């Protein structure tokens, strides 16, 4: 791909000689951008008439142009810390994980608290997490806060616990077991409080730069008390406003029961009182709220953190204030309570107003036919993470161990959601699963449970336009004249209209139907390579030597 210059400001640009993924013209090979908007899309022949009137011509050399992706659920600072710090998600064994902890501690002698993430005892042959004594030895007795891969439980060294007076008396502290609940939140708050402004900014920059390199143009930051901090959210939004990179839309996960509290959410810069407002926890940590006990922990079914009355009050207040509401809900009992609460709110403020507000539910994994129907009726957006199924689904995965094969096979039913008309927005929950939009599209299209698979086109739409619709915007996430000039340029193989299974509706598979193609995402094929990411007409990532 060649060009005359790299723009430092929005310009009038003609891109030509490639493939432009647009419903406006399924066979488009060229696109004109004026400033921060798309002005025209069409054929190579028609592009000649624009060539003399633009400031810049980009020769695509056969590359594919798509809308930039939106990741609808991200923890930006934590993602940056994982990218630049201690990440155990790739450690093959407990022994290797401890070696990485030891090396990291030796390399960071000046850090007051060591921060790490990504351990998953279920993926290790030892089938156990590090003990506190082992971590004390590996860190040389220094404070370490180390979250499980799902970030719903954590390990801490003795020195870290000593920084939180009374932690052993808090709910969720159980000797050498991973911290959960109140104990986890208290330790997390103490650990994150040690981050300097410089460390936080470096992490945020690293995360945004990495996202841009993957063709991601927008991030939905899911912040809130006990997850991050007000300072973290405000600083991230300020950084995104001042520096080039992906757009950031913040959610603040705190219950709202008055117009004054709703105003306070807006003052933080958040677009909603939503995101990780916890109705329950996670399956990996046995804290997701289930209707029946865990298969591998018969004495527990998790617990709900919000009842239907609290959910109803929050949704009603947000709806009346014109603010988006939303919840984190994974287990079937939690999803039952969320939909019951939203239904009660609709009875108070009116169903039409609740639907118009486009409230959202994060993760929405253990849905039933009833709760799917409620999502559709209440116009709830399902903000989902296909990487969860790729990581933990299947007959031998963590889901099957936690729930048994029968219940595990019901998780993440994307096809049923789309058939019911439920809006989908795809994301990663990074750093829980890595940023990687094409990998997420692949995971949704080749779901480990065949009946839940959706077409590549459906998953791609959910990861581009779906993220914008989840914000209440219908004019973005698609390449058509008048839309924001947020796009990515890709090197990829031949384009296809792909449905991965004969049980997936195949009405659009004939190329003569005029459906624009997408890369072949059959498992084992290489993912497209991002050559350039452009946000609002400004280049925020350019692959070197391209």
Q: Strand portion, in percent? A: 15-25%
Helix content: 25-40%
Seen as an oligomer or otherwise, the chain set is single chain
Helix count from the secondary structure assignment: 20
Count the E strands.
Answer: 24
Strand neighbour order, sheet with most strands: 1-6-2-4-5
Q: What is the 3D form?
A: globular
Report the sheet with the most strands, covering strand number, pairing sense and barrel closure.
5 strands, mixed
Output the structural class.
Answer: alpha/beta
Q: Measure the end-to-end span.
A: 6 Å
Query: In terms of per-residue confidence, which ranges show pLDDT below 50 for 5 or more consecutive residues?
Result: 3-7, 503-512
Radius of gyration: 23 Å
Overall pLDDT: 93
Walk me through the structure.
There is one protein chain. This protein is α/β, with parallel strands linked by helices and 546 residues long. β9, α3 and β10 form a beta-alpha-beta unit. The radius of gyration is 23 Å and the shape is globular. Helices cover 34% and strands 19% of the residues.
Secondary-structure map:
Layout: E1 2-3, E2 12-16, E3 19-20, E4 30-34, E5 37-42, H1 44-47, E6 56-59, E7 64-67, E8 69-74, H2 76-84, E9 86-87, H3 94-107, E10 114-119, H4 132-139, E11 144-148, E12 154-156, H5 158-161, H6 181-192, H7 197-213, E13 216-223, H8 230-242, E14 247-252, H9 259-267, E15 272-273, H10 308-321, E16 324-329, H11 332-349, H12 351-357, E17 360-363, H13 369-378, E18 381-384, H14 386-392, H15 398-403, H16 405-408, H17 414-420, E19 424-426, H18 437-445, H19 456-463, H20 465-469, E20 487-491, E21 495-496, E22 518-519, E23 529-535, E24 538-542
Parallel strand pairs: 2-6, 3-7, 8-13, 9-10, 10-11, 13-14, 15-16, 16-17, 17-18, 18-19
Antiparallel strand pairs: 1-6, 2-4, 4-5, 7-20, 11-12, 20-23, 21-22, 23-24
Helix pairs in contact: 2-7, 3-4, 7-8, 10-11, 11-12, 11-13, 14-18, 18-19
